[in-house]
Amino acid sequence: MADAMRIGNCSGFYGDRLAAMRQMLEGGQLDVLTGDYLAELTMLILGKDTMKDPSLGYAKTFVRQLEDSLGLALERGVRIVSNAGGLNPAGLADRLREVAHGLGLDPAIAHVEGDDVRALDLRPGALTANAYLGGFGIAAALTAGADVVVTGRVTDASLVVGPAVAHHGWTPTSYDELAGAVVAGHVLECGTQATGGNFSGFKTLPHDGTPLGFPLAEIAADGSCVVTKHDATGGAVTVDTVTAQLLYEIQSTRYLNPDVTTLLDTVELHEVGRDRVSVSGVRGEAPPERLKVCVNELGGFRNTVELVLTGLDIDAKADWVREQLTPALTASEVSWTRTALPPVDADTEEGASCLLRCTVKDASPDPVGRAFTSAAVELALASYPGFTMTAPPAQPTPYGIYRAEYVDRAAVTHTVVHADGRREVVADPTEFSTADDRDSLRPSPFPAPIDSLTRRAPLGSFVHARSGDKGGDANLGLWVVHDGSDKYEARVTWLTKLITPRKVRELLPEAADLDVEVHVLPNLGGVNVLIRGLLGDGVAASTRFDPQAKGLGEWMRSRVVHVQEGLI
């Protein structure tokens, strides 16, 4: 039986810490180092790059990182696996060979392709259309001796699943083992979010100025793992930081990946040492029959002006400038939003002010360009008292629309191009799950709490949250803090009874008319909430104040609810 594999992460998005690759290589022993550079929005950005230069379409920062760290990785025997290939993994592989030869190195560099399905014409004229591939292509490349593997659009977890398959020799029907690796990959994929980044319990973290460390996992042959980080790095790995990432951007309790369906309600987390959390008990089932596809279309152009309203009569000022500007707006979509009213008798001018935003969108740049910004500027001396903007008028920018599609696996040719140029097609699974992803919608499994006196308090008094985007949907994970309290079980019962679709709509009025799903995760002491359509056509097209729903969880925690007296 192979020893546990130590696999780390050095990137959670395109733009993450450049020094992280070297820091992870120097920080301690690793077998594999991964980097995740792709998101739905990133695919759109890379698509725009290819419009300017077809030879691009990959994460250029990854090239800089490899140029700095490739020699060190080879010296230490650490393999590099990354989805930085984006829309052009072959181009990235060629570029890396040029960099390596310039450094006097000769690594075996392989790439995985086949995810580009624009030829299927799922959306006529789509800028990008990429199927989410699994990890067996990566595994094949590593088994054949690759030192570096770059891919296009594989699932984020596949970056960990592939190396684990190669290391432990799992087969396509090793469902529990594969599911465990998917959980490990999901925890690692967003980098420092697993060690305290974007964590609602941030005040409990050590704050000594040390940058948060990137996470790593020690994955055993049975698929279980221990999540940890290198010594002397910032942040912390606790049950709560791991839960925070585990509940990030999932949907139901059935987490669908190309290689396996992971049952998230089977995950068990335990603290087994300082900055060491074990992940065990994960069960898996056959994967879904079809593959998800990320489709990005160019939706049009957008622009925004932000007006400052100060002092008295805020509502009247906002009404007047809207009345003045509206007749000049010819864009097909106009959205107005305003921040909260300032307090009475504020002791600073900024504190006495709020912001009024007007965002316009149109298929053509003209209605959202000078015709829009000039109309706003021309009101500078002819509108409400104190008229000012937060920034000069800007040029319109293009925006994209994300859509999820699904295709038969037979329409996708998952292909590995090995370092010697040999091409290998990865076989599709032969067993598939027929369960409905919505089967996990159910009431709380816990008994109803006993009636008692209640007091009003913020939901976040003992509840953590993590939120994010899933296309046009918002994901919101809520779970009870692990603070050693003997009230933990009672708090979990209360939370899972409280959070229903109706209660979510009450606490988050923006969701009042939307479809809300609540999935209970008893092992994790919480629930996962999916709010359908909150983000419109996705991050790039949303006019919402927080288009990626990153702050949605913190808003939810600030909402005041009735809490049983004994739970506070």
Describe the structure in brief.
With 568 residues, this protein is α+β, with helices and mostly antiparallel strands. The protein contains 13 helices and 26 strands.
Question: Explain this structure to me?
Answer:
By secondary structure, this protein is of the alpha+beta class. The chain contains 13 helices and 26 strands. An eleven-stranded mixed sheet has the order 11-12-8-7-1-2-3-6-4-19-20, sandwiched between helices. Strands 5, 14, 15, 16, 17 and 18 form a six-stranded antiparallel sheet that branches. A four-stranded antiparallel sheet has the order 22-23-25-24, with helices on both faces. A hairpin with a 4-residue loop joins strand 24 (516-521) and strand 25 (526-531). Helix 1 (20-27) runs parallel beside helix 3 (60-76) and helix 7 (175-188) crosses helix 8. The longest helix has 17 residues, at 60-76.
Shape: globular
Distance between the termini: 48 Å
Helices, by number, come to 13
What proportion of the residues form beta strands (DSSP E)?
25-35%
Average of the residue pLDDT scores: 95
Q: Major sheet, described briefly?
A: 11 strands, mixed
Indicate the low-confidence ranges by residue numbers. Answer: none
Number of strands: 26
| Estimated structural class | alpha+beta
Strand order of the largest sheet: 11-12-8-7-1-2-3-6-4-19-20
